[in-house]
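All the exercises in this workshop are built on plain-text protein records. An example says more than a description, so a record of this kind follows:
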Amino acid sequence: MNTTLPPVRPITLNDIREARERIASTIVRTPLVRLELGPEYPEVWLKLENLQPINAYKLRGAANAVAMLPETERARGVWTISAGNAGQGVAYAARKAGVPCTVVAIETAPAAKIERMRALGAKLIPVAYHVAWKALSDRAFPGAEGTFIHPFDDHNFIAGHATMGLEILEDAPETKMVIASIGGGGLITGVGSAIKALRPKIKIFGVEPETAAPMALSLAEGRPQCFKDWKASFVDGAGGQSVFPRMWDRMQPLIDDSLVVTLQETREAMRIMADKARVISEGAGAMPLAAALTGQAGPGPIVCIVSGGNIDLQKFCELIDL
């Protein structure tokens, strides 16, 4: 069932500042730390969103979206679609608000994410990835009841993510570039909205895995594209099958470019963060560092958003055993 949606509109500084106040008691102001790599490498700073209560940035958007629901919509309960991090964010925010939550969950999501969503009280409906991606477009799924909270194409969700941009500028005013992984596009739209409003000369780069890079393709073609050779990988939190037209309208004015990294480069970035900074990152959280280390983003200072750390520890160890 497709619904008539309001037109896409820019995320304003007023939206972002109000969201910051609204979610302050729920989220953590995460640290920005220098990654010491040596003079031959770019100057890299890590925005550690893996330290949020759900170990992922999605709590920012979810907390803002749930808080802004009218009481009549909260009473119906909420539901979302997720590979794990958005589901955890909505479940966490819903539990805090005393609202029932259902997640249409991608069945191949890491066990750590599935277990965490269930522990937060969410009812789970497992589905295949392509089924979930279609439901994201339809905004409907049989058996999922209540108010739908889209995990990326939602103005209030994105405004919550944008609060991260304010923190980056306050903590690292000399930043030249910010790199964020792209899945649906909500993270980069939010952060880009805040940063471009205040410091438009700072470059905003996206990054996608080689197995799923529709935004890089869309930028090359000048319009939203499907990625025909999409393949599942351990990078479950980024890399979609396509760029939704509405998300293209949101992202395209804000993004300077979108880079593509290999799975091997991503694994190496995961290993480097664990070795040098004792940071456990999932694949999507490591891709910005992987992109920075290719040299394509310049010498820096570069802020790499470590979007999450929800990965099974055994799988993490296997991936960094290079």
Remarks:
- The first strand starts at residue 32 and ends at 35.
- The mean pLDDT is 94.
- Strands lie at 32-35, 44-48, 78-82, 101-106, 123-127, 147-148, 177-181, 203-209, 257-261, 302-306.
